């Protein structure tokens, strides 16, 4: 009997999809699902959701337990999934709203730049505490992180706990591959690709259908008005860089200076797209604000009426666990791991998102070599700024936070150095209760 622990299990969408995937595999028909969250209400709904999935999957030998005690949840775990958010909406809304008051318009704010960095500063100490508990109570576990900012969190955890098996997962790789296949009218079973870079700025270095290069067809496809409008920012990036990027237009509009530095550019590129997230200001924050009053009703509705998908829900976690300590079937995926000779022209030691193989020996990355120079130039800056933020966490030096944010492409396109410093000071003040480990002031 295997044990899989979910830290942040009150994120019920992730939890129920990942559990449904696990229970669809023969190796986990008798698994123990241990749910942990600090929010007792959300935790209880997730427990009931898992019970429903166990029944729908016809897995009477599977068990679910729920606890607010992290150590109890981790003891003896073979696999751990993390989906936490440290600081609720009343806290992280300032990550979006303070930059906006200075003129920095943010769509999501969970990856890098001012909002992503401060989310990282709040979350890193908790993630390092989780790693400490894993090292003590289940050191052989496979730890899969879904919490953003993905690259910075994986980098700091892997750096401080190098003996633990840690990888970060983002569904944008397989999700975008499916989108591109759909544009071409192809089935994903006929598609192969090599995708590499950094989280949310990874690119398909090749994209093939039945072994043939599909990029010429994709270049034709994005010229069709109905396809161009689905992902305006990403399609513009594709035309400029020659390779397709993984994360949505809304996210990618934040990571460079070309789409959000003026209101007319936001209107042109980030307002009229037809994809799930074209890039309007504070999109994810507004979705969370809506959910503050409706989550309980929505959770209950799914428990009463929701269907348990009989197919794969599109996430990698179950198949990675299956490869390492299930039936041993190797599984290839894109994971977030430190760059030691994997991508030659990105910063060594930083976190990259690259093809990996999971098997009974563990998780190992494939060597990518050099990325095309234009992609390396784009990713290198983001990666170096992430490294500065990691140094900030490890040293408690607020100047490194400022330096990471002052060179962020969107921020530097809008603000002077002095204005950026004032914005960072204001963000520190709003996060005072979470950032007591920083020494001194700016």
Describe this structure in words.
- This protein is α/β, with parallel strands linked by helices and 442 residues long.
- It has a domain at 3-169: AglA-like glucosidase (LDH C-terminal domain-like), CATH 3.90.1820.10.
- The protein is 48% helix and 15% strand.
- It is built from 18 helices and twelve strands.
- It has helices at 12-23, 40-56, 70-74, 89-101, 113-137, 150-160, 172-183, 215-221, 225-228, 232-241, 249-254, 263-269, 283-305, 317-325, 373-395, 398-406, 409-414, 417-430; strands at 3-7, 32-36, 63-67, 79-82, 142-145, 165-168, 191-198, 201-209, 212-213, 331-338, 351-359, 362-365.
- The strands form three sheets. Strands 3-2-1-4-5-6 form a six-stranded parallel beta sheet, sandwiched between helices.
- It is globular and about 60 Å long.
- 50% of the residues are buried.
- The model has no long low-confidence stretch (mean pLDDT 97).
Write the topology of this structure.
Elements: E1 3-7, H1 12-23, E2 32-36, H2 40-56, E3 63-67, H3 70-74, E4 79-82, H4 89-101, H5 113-137, E5 142-145, H6 150-160, E6 165-168, H7 172-183, E7 191-198, E8 201-209, E9 212-213, H8 215-221, H9 225-228, H10 232-241, H11 249-254, H12 263-269, H13 283-305, H14 317-325, E10 331-338, E11 351-359, E12 362-365, H15 373-395, H16 398-406, H17 409-414, H18 417-430
Parallel strand pairs: 1-2, 1-4, 2-3, 4-5, 5-6
Antiparallel strand pairs: 7-8, 8-9, 10-11, 11-12
Helix pairs in contact: 1-2, 1-14, 2-13, 4-5, 4-13, 4-18, 5-6, 5-15, 6-15, 15-16, 16-18
């Amino acid at each position: 009997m295997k044990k899989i622990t979910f830290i942040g299990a009150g994120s019920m969408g992730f939890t129920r999809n990942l559990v449904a995937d696990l229970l669809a595999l023969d190796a986990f028909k008798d698994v123990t699902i241990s749910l942990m969250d600090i929010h007792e209400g959300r935790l209880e709904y997730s427990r009931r959701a898992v019970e429903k999935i166990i029944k729908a999957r016809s897995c009477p030998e599977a068990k679910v337990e729920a606890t607010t005690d992290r150590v109890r949840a981790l003891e003896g775990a073979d696999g751990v999934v993390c989906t936490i958010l440290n600081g609720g909406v009343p806290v992280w809304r300032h990550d979006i709203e303070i930059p906006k008051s200075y003129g920095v318009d943010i769509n999501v704010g969970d990856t890098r730049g001012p909002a992503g960095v401060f989310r990282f500063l709040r979350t890193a100490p908790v993630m390092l505490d989780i790693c400490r508990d894993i090292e003590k109570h289940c050191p052989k576990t496979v730890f899969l992180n879904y919490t953003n900012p993905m690259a910075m969190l994986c980098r700091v955890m892997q750096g401080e706990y190098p003996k633990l098996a840690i990888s970060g997962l983002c569904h944008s790789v397989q999700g975008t591959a499916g989108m591109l296949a759909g544009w071409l009218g192809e089935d994903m079973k006929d598609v192969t690709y090599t995708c590499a870079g950094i989280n949310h700025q990874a690119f398909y270095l090749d994209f093939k259908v039945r072994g043939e290069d599909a990029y010429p067809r994709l270049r034709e496809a994005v010229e069709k008005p109905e396809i161009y409008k689905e992902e305006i920012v990403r399609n513009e990036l594709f035309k400029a860089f020659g390779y397709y990027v993984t994360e949505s237009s809304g996210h990618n509009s934040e990571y460079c200076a070309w789409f959000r530095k003026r209101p007319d550019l936001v209107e042109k590129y980030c307002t009229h797209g037809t994809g799930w997230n074209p890039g309007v200001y504070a999109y994810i924050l507004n979705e969370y604000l809506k959910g503050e009053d409706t989550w309980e009703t929505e959770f209950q509705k799914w428990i009463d009426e929701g269907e348990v998908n009989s197919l794969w829900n599109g996430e990698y976690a179950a198949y990675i666990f299956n490869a390492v300590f299930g039936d041993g079937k190797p599984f290839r995926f894109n994971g977030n791991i430190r760059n030691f000779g994997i991508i030659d022209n990105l910063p060594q030691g930083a976190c990259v998102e690259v093809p990996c193989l999971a098997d009974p020996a563990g998780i190992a990355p494939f060597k990518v070599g050099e990325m095309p120079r234009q992609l390396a130039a784009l990713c290198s800056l983001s990666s170096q700024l992430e490294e500065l933020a990691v140094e900030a966490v490890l040293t408690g030096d607020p100047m490194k936070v400022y330096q990471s944010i002052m060179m962020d492409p969107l921020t530097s396109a809008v603000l002077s150095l002095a204005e950026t410093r004032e914005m960072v000071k204001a963000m520190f003040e709003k996060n005072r209760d979470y950032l007591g480990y920083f020494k001194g002031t700016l």
